[in-house]
Amino acid sequence: MTTANPDLAALIRTIPDFPKPGIQFRDITTLLLDARGFHASIERLAASAPTDIDLIAGIEARGFIFSSAMATHVGKGLVLIRKDGKLPGATIGVDYALEYGTDRVVMHEDACVPGQKVLLVDDLIATGGTALAAVRLLRQAGAEVVGASFVIDLPDLGGAEKLRAEGVPVTTLVSFEGD
């Protein structure tokens, strides 16, 4: 479900042809610069979140901004999901396909315990590859992923639908068509 938030959408800058020609990059740094807009985005994400969660999980790197603010706002702990090689200590991981090649996301093996209810949070959902890998990683640890929240959805790229097909309810604040 995408909630209409034209005030927040207006704070997100579009940078054409970044990182390559034809891409319309949706830059959340302008939203972050606006204290009221950033606060409103956290308030609205929190209002749409399931109430029975145990933890918030955030995906590197911009997702850490929103997930840590959400975790503080709702009074829950924060699980960091990172690219391989970035966390000290014992980790578990999941490989996932990229357009050309593969990548891997990891988290500490003791970040959550079986049965904990986790909300996944990131800044943007596009093709869904990283978010799906994060869901699989959390489930591998025994967590129940009760939802995923994003500031931005690029619905034409299908990531939110892929998460829903995996049984994960998705909430987004704004969407940009055609990207």
TrEMBL record:
InterPro entries named in the record: Ade_phspho_trans (IPR005764), PRTase-like (IPR029057), PRTase_dom (IPR000836), UPRTase/APRTase (IPR050054)
EC number: 2.4.2.7
GO cellular component, one term: cytoplasm
Domain Phosphoribosyltransferase: 34-153
Gene3D superfamilies reported in the protein's UniProt record: 3.40.50.2020
GO BP of this protein: adenine salvage; AMP salvage; purine ribonucleoside salvage
Lineage top rank: taxon: Bacteria
Transmembrane feature ranges: none
Catalytic activity: AMP + diphosphate = 5-phospho-alpha-D-ribose 1-diphosphate + adenine
Subcellular location: Cytoplasm
GO molecular function: adenine binding; adenine phosphoribosyltransferase activity; AMP binding
Keywords of the record: Cytoplasm, Glycosyltransferase, Purine salvage, Transferase
Pathway assignment: Purine metabolism; AMP biosynthesis via salvage pathway; AMP from adenine: step 1/1
Name of the top EC class for this enzyme: transferase
Summary of subunit composition and partner proteins: Homodimer.
Membership in a protein family: Belongs to the purine/pyrimidine phosphoribosyltransferase family.
Role played: Catalyzes a salvage reaction resulting in the formation of AMP, that is energically less costly than de novo synthesis.
Protein name (record): Adenine phosphoribosyltransferase
Organism for this UniProt entry: Sphingomonas chungangi
Gene that this sequence comes from: apt
